[in-house]
Batch of 4 targets.
Target 1
Amino acid sequence: MKIDKKLIKELTDYLNEFNLTELEYGNNDLKIKVSKSISNKSSQSTDLKKSTRTVAEKIDEFGEVSAGKKVTSPIIGTAYLAPEPGAKKFVEVGKKIKKGDTVMIVEAMKTMNHVPATSDGTVKEICIQDGSPVEFGQTLVILD
């Protein structure tokens, strides 16, 4: 089988054009997956933070400092802090929540996915802005 360099180049261009980290293409018995690792100043600053933090604090793959229980995004999508625009937010900093309570919604492909709290606790920090894109595994909320 001959490798289609033009197709690979085109897929790689799509990664840059649409700011993607991974792209998969399939056609009959052909399957191509292209991905890139992101290395920029924010990852360099993460390394600096990591060396200056105490052992009790951890920095996850997104460069966030966390000391507590994390609620992470189960999928890639857009995070919303309330069920609809102008409505009361699911959680606020300082609010006590129980395991299973909805902390926010992540929309993916026009489907609203409720994100439950993974344990009981008090909301210490909300790590994302309303309407912002989130990655799989990205920390959304930190609980005490």
Target 2
Amino acid sequence: MEATCRLFLCARCRKQVLICRHCDRGQIYCADGCAKIARSHSLREAGRRYQQSRQGRFKQAKRIRRFRLRKQNVTHQGSESVADNDLLPANSVKVGTPVVLSRQSRPADTRQCHFCGASCSEFVRYSFLHRRRVPTIIKIDRKGTKHDDSP
């Protein structure tokens, strides 16, 4: 039996993505590396905001001061290094036909998970699967408790 799947748009590249219920952990990005790119962008923005704050400006100034103390100032230019035979002869590189890499063509009617490649059912969800809440068992209050005095 084919697994059910969820269809969503990647939050970064807006590509339609199918994900089976076994791989589904609430992803909003496709498997093509959009999550890593979005994370690095988010970290860069957070760093930019921090460096604009008062504490961030002071820490950055302190870090720059330490760097300038460590840096060795060079007052004279060094001599240029001469590389012998840095040019290749014209016939040393063989030019071949470029190799075109393409994905394997799939029939249009098959649906596969974007993450694991498992085949999915033709019926797709647009929302997350919600876990069923298990009702709590109500304890029955029996007559008499351990603190009651019994004759």
Target 3
Amino acid sequence: MRRITFTLFAVLWLGAVVFAGERSNLEAQKVRVMESITAEELMEYVDELVDPKYRGRLAGCPAYMDVAAWVAGLLEEWGIQPLGDDGTYFQKFPWHYTHVKSTGEVVLMRDGEKFALSAPDDYYPGANSDNGSIEAEVIFAGYGISAPELGYDDFADIDVNGKIVMIAGGTPYTGNNTDTLNLWGPYSGSGYKMGNAYRQGARGVLYLDKLASPGTPYIPGFYYAHIDNAVTERILGRPQSELLNAIRESGEARSFATEFTARIASETEYHPDGITANVIGYIPGTHPELKKEAIIMGAHLDGQGNLGFHFPGALDNASGVADVLATARALAKFRGQMKRSVVFIFFGAEEVGLVGSTYYCQNPAFSAENTLLFMNLDMVGNGEGLALWHGESYPQLFAHYQRNNENHVGRSLRSSEGRMPVGRPRTDGLVFMQYGFRTFHVATTDRVNPLYYHDPRDVPENLVPEIMRDVSRMLFMGTFDLANDTDIVNSELYLIQ
């Protein structure tokens, strides 16, 4: 009897030793793979993504599909399986685009004098202007909003028929009431404002604040440009902030005719039949039940395009794409060792209005019910600290990333409770939230270098490669552990409402 007991004890002890050894070996292998994620690797991806041959990665244009093919090629090389249409990596959908052939022309005129503006210093040409020109009187039209149900209309007391209007982004509402913000949300985007100006009779727009905006609509016979603050002040005779503050404080429109005439000329070619795509790959899980669940990480692959000069889009969003790629390469080393499936999505039309993420949510490979977590990466290449916003609402999920950051990365890691978006969503993660997905917003904190948003100066030299490396290392280690956590029951987890 003692011999049987001793033998059983020895077998159990040996099994425990073997299991501990296997676990130790797995942990050592994970650390080695994590350390293979380097700043140099991240910047190699970035340098390819910002190459001018991809023409700023504009959704709809053939050059975007070229960069999408490059990403798909990496996924295939790493053994990550396709999850797009018909056994491919591509989830395709139609999207129109405009080829901007040159910077065009913007000229101001007053009292017989002409002031020719220069791009990109004074203005950016409109991403979707028609081919041609307009010369007309310039009217200041505030926020370009007509919202009678809110008691506000920038066009109520001014004739803009056939003219050029100056309009600002945003809305005149400055409060924080959620319901009111949601009422104003549909009026805040440049797409609405351009369309409304056209419906009011205007045939051109000088859009206040100079930034690339590919999400504006193409309207035949309509021309526009985005102008620098100094140009705005020259036309108005005062800083735009004075006029906009007066509108916000009074809640009343203050539109008026300026003393200027302007000429806007565009050299463009409109393509209504463009095609774009989300790029989707995945590593299938191994557990009979848990493999039906997915951990998804995504980043928008598209950029601001080319407006007669190149927009590299390094921070926005080559940084996020590079981080997802590095994480995907590392996790692919452990194919067959993760119980849950892990999905990687590179969205094809974020900059034009969150179209790619919306299309995926409406046609998901894994439904919201079968997705444990979606993590969105947008502009994550400049800073010293890390953040997983909304992590505090999902402590069981957040814990894996927090622990691995503490043990292996060593950056500050901030988080927050989750909140549903208010007003107009501005990033893909908010779209996923609206469709009922648990969502982390992966970010970097404590900015180091200058931030150039929708600006041709958004170049790789302004990134911080080491923070990008550490984002990917944390995501790799945390996602591997989360994929194998059998104590988490998806259906029992909290969901932000």
Target 4
Amino acid sequence: MALVSETEIFTESEWLEIVNELSLPPRQAGVMKYLFLGHSDKQIAMELQISVPTVRTHLSRLFSRFDVQDRTELVLYVFRYFRKNSRANGCHR
């Protein structure tokens, strides 16, 4: 199993599992990944080489899709989803 660095919450394999299970398009997955690393909209835009308004559009679509109000709720939603699925599969994460 891959080790998780100090700034990452999920291993690469866990992240790919989440992305697949939530059917995230590549750009939304990228935005969310950097969101989980604590990046600002500007930092996400720089990392993904897109504009800040585009980052905000992706975030808005993610908020709408998962029926959350802000980035904190989005992070909690994904984390709860991961924990629920892990426990359902017999893992005690």
